[in-house]
Amino acid sequence: MGVIAQPDVVLLGRRVAADQAFVWLAAGTIVSIALASYLEEFVLKSLPNYDFFFTMAFFELAVFGVVSHVTIRLRAATELASLGGDGAFASPRAASGPPPRWSDVKWWRLEPRAAPLRLYAIGAACLALYASLGKLAYKYVNYVTGTVLKSIKLVPVMIVSVAWLGRSYPPHDYAAAGFLTTSAVMFGLGEAESNREANYAMGFVLSFICLGLTAAQSNIADACMRDHGAGVDENMLYVNGVGACFVFAFLVISGEIFEAFAYFTRYPGAFALLFVRSVVFYAGAWLYTLLMKHFGAVAAVAVTTARKAITVMLSFALFRSDKPLTAKYAAATALFFGAIACEYHKSEVRRRREERARGAKGGRRGGGEHGDGDDGDGDDGDDGSGEGRRWRPGRRSTDGRGGATREMDRELAPVRIK
Length: 418
Description:
Layout: E1 8-11, E2 14-17, H1 18-46, H2 53-82, H3 92-95, H4 117-137, H5 143-151, H6 154-163, H7 171-194, H8 200-228, H9 232-254, H10 256-266, H11 268-318, H12 327-366, H13 403-416
Antiparallel strand pairs: 1-2
Helix pairs in contact: 1-11, 2-4, 2-9, 2-11, 4-8, 4-9, 5-7, 7-12, 8-13, 10-11, 11-12, 11-13
């Protein structure tokens, strides 16, 4: 697939051959997210009388927020130790020494924010609604239908871009949009045929609302990182943490928290399943982030393509009660796999284009055209205004990290911000 572009990769402090690292990260991502999807569907469909969708959303947001805070504090403690504890540079040996002890980490402290709290509050509200309504949609549609509906966010983006911005797309994007739209329609017909008593239309409405919410939240996250220089961990902490507070407030006001507490008292295994599912989901997102960091977005897209296919197949194989494999479901699944094939083809086209671009830039560097280290591709914050890599105020994160790290954060943000 052309993803191995370096001799080795450092994972968890160990140097590993690149091909071996790719296999580990890809397999870990697929297994973790597939397991999280299985646990989510098991809780929603198999636990007796489970009706606590906002509670599940709270667990997910809370785990992501807490782990993000732990990550930030451990990084800050490590950087402080490397500086000798008083801001003065320590010896190289101290900088590469053992990680700080947990007792030395100031867990209660929050680092200064780069982006305003108002933006994070709006993004947190969008994410809280997305997570909650997305879980609630599974009350009315089966898991595979919900997965497909979440995948068609490409379609409204393309419609707006073509009709409003006059943008054109390659044929495989139009094919993928057609496959996804037809697949969603066929899944809806399958729902109407197999679940006559369920209000499947409500599930579709909730899923479409979630598409708008995730688009809004992504734009807000991009504004935080693009315009204010916020890092991924900071964005994750505030958006998920504040979002968890919003959902918790709703749980208290609606009384669901008390009903959920009684349910978990009766079925303690349900509480453990929600917690484990959230942790496993975070682990999958983290592995996916490492995969994108070391092997690029093209390889990551190929892995997520395989993950979607596996999720659909496992759902049909392990949870047959609410989605019998009728002709409509079979046709809808085939159309969905057609969209996945288009997505994989798109990633391959992009990979080949990037390889040609790297070869062309390598030739120009050899000719001395970019002796100052600028590769001239305009990717580092170039918004088409002709400013290129020139410094613009407010674009560097407050922790002093450089432009390359900031751009990597922006690339990885859609992965770790759900």
